[in-house]
Write the structure tokens for this entry.
Amino acid sequence: MDDGQIHGTIEQLVAEEHELWEREAAGAATDDDRRRLDAVKVSLDQCWDLLRQRRALSESGRDPDAASARPPEVVERYKQ
């Protein structure tokens, strides 16, 4: 996945996240919506992490395609 594809995925996930938050705010969210919202948050964290990895590799003169998505257990433990 290249940077453009990652950005596109992020945009799609953000749009879905906003829709799910709107349902929650309106009191119309289901348990499935809440589970999906949690999954979307993790996917966003993975995408942002992958993008940062690719940029770091590129800036250091290495191949950005060597970056790979890290598992949720890793990206969810990062300190914000």
